[in-house]
Amino acid sequence: MRSTQVAIVGAGPSGLLLAQLLSRNGIDAIVLERRSRDYVQARIRAGLLEWTTVELLQEAGVAERVMRDGLVHDGFDVAFANGCHRIDLKGLTGRSVLVYGQTELQKDLVQARASDPGAVLWEVADVVLHDWDTRAPRVSYTHAGARHELRCDYIAGCDGYHGVSRAAVPPQQRLQFERVYPFGWLGLLADVPPLHEELVYAHHERGFALCSMRSRGRSRYYVQCSLGDKVQQWSDSRFWDELAARLPERYAGRLVTGPSLEKSIAPLRSLVTEPMQFGRLFLVGDAAHIVPPTGAKGLNLAAADVRVLARGLVEFYRTGSTTLVDEYSHRALRRVWQATRFSWWFTTLLHRFSADPFAQRLQSAELEYLARSSAASRTVAENYVGPSFD
Ligand SMILES: Cc1cc2nc3c(=O)[nH]c(=O)nc-3n(C[C@H](O)[C@H](O)[C@H](O)COP(=O)(O)OP(=O)(O)OC[C@H]3O[C@@H](n4cnc5c(N)ncnc54)[C@H](O)[C@@H]3O)c2cc1C
């Protein structure tokens, strides 16, 4: 039987960043990941980092490429009624955000942990959490054809929405708050220059669209689609036509199209689990909460959880005090609910929900208010750049 101080389930951004921060503070952690290293490094997901996330990556010693290749964005556009309103993030809050693909971040984190052989076990199966409500938790798993057991002081469940950690807690011991949205996002990745130097969020009667990017030569575009749609129904040309139809003319006219590198449909959901700590088991990132991607919060919330938990564990191993560790759930949930509210609101503002003309008039009125009122723009900007850490 092996032992470690912190057993981490999942090598997504949460699990690897936590492992990296703990390692830099002399704390031993082993990460168990069910997928292969190549698979994890190729997953296409988020692309926008709040500045507090960037600072955490610097603290973890993995920000060299982020600072070199990331694109600083001082604002973004909200397009509606064939016009545009710019949210001046920098002018309204003094802060910017950074565009850097999660795929690249994942590679940086994997690379950093590779310096510690055995710290990440890839392709493990049948992970089971044991005794997390005692002082001697264990994790059992299958690796390279054999069953193993890992003793630890704490378990960090960083295994995402479909993982085993949240499911290990009986439903009667946790609360789950959920909102499922009646549409999805069809995303397309292509090696074409972005349509604009900043992100463009478009509200249109045909549905929402987002013009995003991963670098100066790689664009990521999304259109709102039906939940029943299949990727095969969306040829590249159908996607590009639909995207152009949802954009103001000044943008549609300069859209550069090209063959897709990847196309996928993601359902939209808000979910919060309370609490985020059960004895010696912590739920971290998507294992605890999901937000619709409209506010670009998923990855940033995961990083914020990691920061709070890492602080607590470092204090525990330095001083023996569990004060910060015991506050993990309370402190993390404050930020989680702020981001959940903003992501829900921004999704509600920009998407086409129904044919109800009353609801549509309200959306139009709210968008006009946003364009007219600097107070309304400031509220959006403050939420978009995210709160500072306390
Ligand atoms: C398709 C998609 C698109 C997204 N787009 C955006 C976006 O545009 N903007 C945004 O902000 N956010 C986006 N997100 C959300 C963002 O990517 C997540 O919030 C972020 O990845 C959370 O990181 P995590 O480490 O907590 O979870 P994950 O990235 O889900 O990592 C969990 C890890 O645990 C592993 N795992 C799962 N089960 C087990 C098990 N039983 N045993 C061992 N390992 C296990 C998984 O393989 C995975 O590697 C998107 C998410 C998805 C799924």
Task: Tell me what you see in this structure.
With about 400 residues, the protein is of the alpha/beta class. About 35% of the residues lie in helices and about 30% in strands. The chain has an 8-stranded mixed β-sheet with strand order 7-6-15-16-17-14-18-21, sandwiched between helices. The chain binds flavin-adenine dinucleotide. Flavin-adenine dinucleotide binds near residues 33, 35, 127, 158 and 159.
Summary?
The chain is α/β, with parallel strands linked by helices. The chain has helices at 13-24, 37-42, 51-59, 64-69, 89-93, 102-114, 165-168, 236-245, 249-252, 298-319, 323-326, 328-350, 357-372, 374-385; strands at residues 2-3, 6-9, 29-32, 48-50, 71-73, 76-80, 83-87, 97-99, 120-121, 125-130, 138-143, 146-151, 154-157, 175-190, 200-202, 209-215, 218-225, 260-274, 277-278, 281-283, 289-290.
Question: Which key terms come to mind for this protein?
Answer:
single chain; alpha/beta; 8-stranded mixed β-sheet; 6-stranded mixed β-sheet; globular; binds flavin-adenine dinucleotide
Topology:
Layout lengths: L1 E2 L2 E4 L3 H12 L4 E4 L4 H6 L5 E3 H9 L4 H6 L1 E3 L2 E5 L2 E5 L1 H5 L3 E3 L2 H13 L5 E2 L3 E6 L7 E6 L2 E6 L2 E4 L7 H4 L6 E16 L9 E3 L6 E7 L2 E8 L10 H10 L3 H4 L7 E15 L2 E2 L2 E3 L5 E2 L7 H22 L3 H4 L1 H23 L6 H16 L1 H12 L5
Parallel strand pairs: 1-12, 2-3, 2-13, 3-9, 6-15, 13-20
Antiparallel strand pairs: 4-8, 5-8, 6-7, 10-11, 11-12, 14-17, 14-18, 15-16, 16-17, 18-21, 19-20
